[in-house]
């Protein structure tokens, strides 16, 4: 099976390898990042308009993430069912338009939690499908430079960094807008952003494909690759690490209901999160991309756990005794935790790019990322179960400190499995020498 070839036309400007494909990657990523404008509005819609508690919000949010768990399906559809001989640009245009219409519907006609979850499911299908196309382009561009970690890191940073930049721009705006307009107007503004996908579709120049692979063929090829130990162990580790329980929804209710943080400050928190994400990526790409994966991941996890535990000071009000205002403590601790989280994530993302074989890179990378997203869904569900078990509600945060302690310590449990993951150099050597890999 051959992936559709994309015509490369260098952009005018300083000498570089930047191409039209690079611009398409940016448009797909930033359109996804801009959707962050509605994040706070959705949280407040569930909390205020529908009267949902933290465990219910966690459950609803995890349901809306299902399209991200079945990302390989979107890869199979685009590979096996081209439209007018093209596998990517028509899907970008179609799902861009559907996404826009769904946000318009959310702004005008959604009045129940069930309707909100169903509409968000449709929106997330559109976003996840286009995300698969963008990530497939990232993998293709990464592999054009051979096995160089610099090339892989550059395009991973381009995609995820651009998405984080889009989130950074809209994060604070989402909080500010809620001070002046209602949630549904924010949804209406968000409806404009999927149109960027239509622009990306117009820019793409694809050759028509004449042969369509079958889904069975792709599944067999992917299974042949996934069963290799140097791929199976990273997949297992990614899932186990990502599925540790999360306290994010409980903290949102604590910030808004107990500490009384307003819309504007919650927007500032989202902006700090986006800035930390971007800085974490840039630091990795500039100074850490050549550092061995295992020791860096291990120590960033340990430091991240310690920083996560500092939030206990906030929920027990110890920060007040130390003379640190709630706003300062919340901003700084969240910033540091997120930046360290990105330093954990980037090596895994780069590894996923570099171990994907040609011709099925889109579907295989989608499988790796769906494992990541499935872990996130399980994490959210385990967090909801933990909240119920500890009696944490929208007004009762007595045992929130214990939840923070447990979630941060449980995060360390998968670390012993790091010894099962091969280093980058060994993975690449096995890829070049393995007959099984060459057959994929």
TrEMBL record:
GO CC field: membrane
**Transmembrane segments in this chain: where?**
18-37, 57-77, 89-106, 112-134, 155-178, 184-204, 231-255, 267-284, 296-315, 335-353, 374-393, 399-418
Which SUPFAM superfamilies does the record match to this protein? MFS general substrate transporter (SSF103473)
Does the record carry NADP as a key word? Answer: no
Keywords assigned by UniProt, alphabetized = Membrane, Transmembrane, Transmembrane helix, Transport
Q: Where found in the cell?
A: Membrane
Q: Which InterPro entries match?
A: BT1 (IPR039309), FBT (IPR004324), MFS_trans_sf (IPR036259)
Give membrane topology per the record: Multi-pass membrane protein
Query: Taking the first listed entry, what is the main subcellular location of this protein, grouped into a coarse class?
Result: membrane
List the Pfam families hit by this protein, alphabetically: BT1 (PF03092)
Name the family the entry cites. Answer: Belongs to the major facilitator superfamily. Folate-biopterin transporter (TC 2.A.71) family.
PANTHER family from the xrefs?
A: FOLATE-BIOPTERIN TRANSPORTER 1, CHLOROPLASTIC
Q: What is this protein called?
A: Folate-biopterin transporter
Q: Which species does this protein come from?
A: Blepharisma stoltei
Give the source lineage, highest ranks first: Eukaryota, Sar, Alveolata, Ciliophora, Postciliodesmatophora
């Amino acid at each position: 099976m051959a992936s559709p070839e994309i015509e490369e036309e260098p952009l005018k400007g300083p000498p570089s390898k930047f191409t039209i494909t690079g611009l398409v990657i940016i448009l797909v990523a930033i359109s996804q990042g801009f959707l962050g404008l509605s994040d706070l509005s959705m949280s407040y819609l569930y909390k205020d308009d529908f009267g949902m508690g933290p465990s219910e919000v966690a459950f609803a949010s995890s349901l809306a993430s299902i399209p991200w768990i079945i990302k390989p399906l979107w890869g199979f559809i685009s590979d096996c069912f081209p439209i007018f001989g093209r596998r990517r640009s028509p899907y970008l245009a179609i799902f861009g338009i559907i996404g826009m219409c769904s946000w318009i519907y959310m702004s005008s006609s959604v009045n129940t939690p069930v309707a909100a979850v169903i509409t968000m499911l449709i929106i997330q299908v559109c976003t996840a499908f286009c995300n698969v196309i963008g990530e497939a382009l990232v993998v293709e561009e990464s592999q054009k430079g051979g096995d160089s970690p610099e090339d892989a890191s550059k395009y991973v940073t381009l995609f995820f960094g651009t998405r984080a930049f889009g989130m950074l721009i809209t994060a604070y705006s989402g909080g500010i807008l809620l001070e002046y307009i209602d949630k549904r107007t924010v949804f209406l503004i968000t409806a404009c952003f999927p149109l960027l996908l239509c622009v990306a579709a117009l820019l793409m120049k694809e050759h028509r494909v004449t042969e369509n692979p079958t889904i069975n063929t792709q599944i067999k090829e992917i299974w042949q690759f996934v069963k290799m130990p140097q791929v199976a162990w990273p997949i297992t580790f990614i899932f186990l690490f990502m599925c540790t329980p999360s306290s994010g929804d409980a903290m949102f209710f604590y910030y808004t209901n107990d500490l009384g943080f307003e819309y504007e400050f919650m927007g500032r928190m989202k902006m700090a999160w986006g800035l930390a994400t971007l800085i974490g990526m840039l630091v990795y790409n500039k100074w850490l991309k050549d550092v061995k994966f295992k020791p860096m991941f291990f120590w960033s996890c340990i430091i991240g756990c310690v920083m996560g535990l500092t939030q206990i000071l906030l929920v027990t009000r110890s920060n007040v005794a130390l003379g640190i205002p709630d706003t300062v403590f919340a901003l700084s601790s969240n910033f540091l935790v997120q930046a360290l989280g990105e330093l954990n994530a980037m090596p895994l993302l780069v590894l996923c790019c570099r171990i994907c074989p040609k011709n099925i890179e889109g579907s295989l990378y989608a499988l790796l990322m769906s494992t990541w997203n499935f872990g996130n869904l399980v994490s959210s569900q385990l967090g909801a179960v933990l909240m119920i078990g500890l009696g944490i509600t929208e007004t009762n945060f007595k045992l929130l400190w214990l939840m923070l302690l447990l979630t941060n310590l449980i995060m360390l449990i998968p670390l012993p499995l790091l010894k099962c993951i091969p280093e980058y150099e060994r993975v690449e050597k096995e890829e070049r020498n393995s007959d099984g890999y060459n057959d994929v």
